[in-house]
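User: Good morning. I'm curious how protoporphyrin IX containing FE would be positioned relative to this chain. Could you predict the structure with it bound?
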Amino acid sequence: MAVPSPLDPIDPLGTNTSFKQLLGTIIRHAFTLFFGYLTFDCIYNLFLHPLRSFPGPVMARASNLYSFFYALSGHQEEAEYALHILYGPFVRARPNQILIADPAYIPTVYHLRADKDSMHMGEALGLHTSTLAPGPWEQHAMRRRRIAGAYSMTNIKRMEPLIDARIMEFTAALDERFVKTGETFDFAVWANYYTYDVVSTIAFGEPFGFVRTGTDVASLLKQFHGGAGYATSIAKIPAFEAALGMIPGFSKLWIPKPTDKKGLGALMGFRDKLLDARMAEWKEGKGRDRKDLLSHFLAAQNLDGTPMTREEIAGEALLIMIAGSDTTATTLRHLLFNLLKKPEAFEKLRNQIDKAYDTGKLSKPVPTYAQVEKEVPFLWCCLQETLRIAAPVAAPMGRVVSEPIAAGNLVIPVGAEVGMNPWVVHRHEETWGEDCEEFRPERWEVRESERREMEKKMLTFGGGARVCLGKGIALMEVSKVIVELLRKMEWEIAEAPKGEEAEVRWNTGTWQERGYWVRAERRDLGR
Ligand code: HEM
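Assistant: Good morning! Here's the predicted structure, ligand included:
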């Protein structure tokens, strides 16, 4: 064997190295680098990181993969609740994130100048040009300012007839398909049909058509739900998401786009068709008297008087569909089921509704929201209690710490990320009492000043500068429809048909649910 001379040219791979060997060597080096980096990162996170003294599972303190896997499990809320039970009110659930369970911290975490954390959910959900996108608070304030008017109470009232039309269509469809036939049905599915049709009506002026056809039009729900779990889980490992984004052309494969046939992209494609038609109409000076949110976005202006770009309008429109559909459907189905499981509360609510109709205080065919608020006060209590124990957003909304936060005998430093999961916060026993898991609407039947204090402990609609813009719309569409459902029909929980499951829930940040089987019978429709 020839002995290599020190004068030989340096050739670490060997001059006769085949392409296969070369590739093998590159992969080996890449793996060594990758695992070297991971090892260093874990060691840093465990022993040198500014949050190293906070309690939490070793895996969670070492790597973002821990939270990625529990998000992927579909029960992030239970995982985080369990972490708080094991480790107390401040838990290190990711290397750079502390979760907080105590509602007293809501104003500290969600203050007006808090930046959103590093989770890039915006892009994975196609929302990076919308108000919901992560980023500095100044950018968010600018985006929110130009669209806030669309969500004002004055405008919501103008949109009320649009919602009434959907309520009438929904109750008529249930009557025709199930009440008349005596068939049981999955209320989870129909609650989705109703709320998706409502959001597309208030966004674009027309429903998707789920209720009218009684089907998942163009498999939109299936496609959207299929993509959502992946998007929220991958957002837990921002470095991985960013690394994927750096591979040329790779992001095109996984970031949803309107040309996709599946996933969130399919929903975007649907949005684009409606949006393009409306933009063309707008350019011709037509359709300016429409009452939907899109006409507000088309007319909205930045501070310098420039209009919103098409991309920005598209982002806001998609945000309405994503933020305002499953959340409201969850509220509606849990409100009905909570009432059906608590007959005293159901009766009390129904008596209030009947009395208000009998005395002509609720108008027909659909009462106004103002009437419902005034004449059926117990509904508000039932709704609040539902939003408390079945928070439709059951994942922490992360923020970056800009002022040190005292956390027991430790301090969460500037630059760390903090978050509070509404599902957990609403089960904080010291705040809500030993019966915090129980649906007890009477807890809200207290003096106005006490109610206001209780509301401050709720995180259902988020907090601070990024509090939900659609809260008024959500409360209106759920309150009015439940009044109609209870006025017109008798309800009971039905057994799941053979081969079907009951009450299946899957948390992707918002809930995907099925198997809420019910039977409905016609009541005295003359009422
Ligand atoms: C019960 C139903 C709903 C719940 C529980 C809910 C919850 C939330 C939460 C927790 C946030 C804050 C997210 C964050 O901090 O990043 C939010 C933001 C938002 N929601 Fe809702 N939402 C509901 C219904 C709606 C509806 C019906 C719409 C529109 C029609 C809507 C539009 C929005 C918008 C535009 C934002 C972004 C606000 C901002 O970042 O400034 N939501 N929602």
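The longest strand covers residues 517-522. The chain has a mean pLDDT of 90.
Let me know if you'd like a different ligand tried.
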